[in-house]
Amino acid sequence: MGYDVEILREKGAPKYHRWFSIWNWHRLMVSVLYGMGALNDEQVEGQLMTVTSLQNGQHESEGENNVEMLIKKSDNQTSGKTLKRIVIIHDIEYDVKGRGIGCVVRVPEEVVDSFDNKKDFDKFMHSMEASSHMQMMTNHLLFDYQEETGFGNKTCQDLSSMGGRPIDYDTCKMIATGIQLALARFGILGDDFLDGMSEVVDAPEVISALRGAFAYAAKECPSTLELDELWDPNELGSIGLFVGLFTQTAFDGSSVKIT
Questions:
Q1: Which residues, 6 or more positions from 190, have their beta carbon under 8 angstroms from its beta carbon?
Q2: Which of 20, 31, 222, 250 has the largest count of CB atoms under 10 Å?
C-alpha cells in the first residue's frame, strides 16, 4: 500500500512518477512540516517513532482512528483458469472538510483462505489495520497543522489519499521548499546540492534565495535529531526520490496527482 505520485505534464512529455510506501510518505510529510516550522524536534521524533512502531507491528492501534476490519465475499470470479485480481479495499470515511473520521478495510475471503495458520493470518490483518491507521495519521497530521502550513481542506485530503485529484503548483512549490529546508536542518542538504541544481536549472535568483535559506536553517535552527536513528537507513533513499520529484515539479511549474 502506498502513494504513486505523478507530475502532470503536457501531452507527449516524458512521464515522471515515483512510488512511496504508506510509511515513508508519512515520514516525508512530517519532514515537510518540520522544514516549514510547523513541528519541533520533539514532535518529529514522536511521529517518526510511531511510524516505525506501526510498520514493525509493535504499536497497539486497537480502538484508534475507528478502523474496522471486515471479511467479505469477493466479487471476483474464476473463469476457466483465469482468476481476476483480488483487491483489498481501504475505504476511508471523511467529514465535510475532508478529515478522516473512520476506515473500513474489506478483506476478500480468498485472502483469508490462503493462510495455513492463524498466527500468519493475524499478523497479516494487523499489518492491514496498521496501514489504515498510518493513512489516517497522515490525514490528521495535515489537518492539525493547517494554520501553520496554510494548506486548504482539499489539499490536506489529497495529500493523504489516492484519489487522483490534481495538487496545484503553489502547494508543490511549498512542499519542495519545506523538504529542502528540513534536510538543511538535518545537515543533509547544503551547498553541494545547490551547486548541482544551478548546473541544470537556469534560475540564479531562486538558487541564491535557497542558499540563504539553507544557511539560516542550518545555523539558526539545526536539528538535534539523528535521522538515521528514526528512519530505517535502508529506506532513506525515498527522501532523494521525493526531493527530486517535487523540485522538478516546482521548476516545471506543474502540478501532481496521487493515485
A1: 184, 214, 218
A2: 31
In whole angstroms, give the CA distance from residue 34 to residue 155.
Answer: 18
Q: Which cell goes with 76?
A: 471476483
Q: Say how many C-beta atoms besides its own lie within 10 A of residue 151's C-beta.
A: 23
Q: How many domains does the chain have?
A: 1
Average model confidence (pLDDT) across the chain: 84
Q: CB-hemisphere CA count at 13 Å for 202?
A: 0
And the C-alpha cell for 248? 522538478
Amino acid at 30: V
Neighbours of 233 (CB within 10 A): 9
Q: C-alpha grid cell for residue 7?
A: 507530475
19-42 confidence digits (pLDDT tens): 999 999 999 999 999 999 999 999
The SS3 assignment for 137 reads helix
pTM of the predicted structure, to 2 decimals: 0.84
220, 212, 253, 242: which is closest to 30 by C-alpha?
242
- Nearest by Cα to 17 from 27, 30, 8: 8
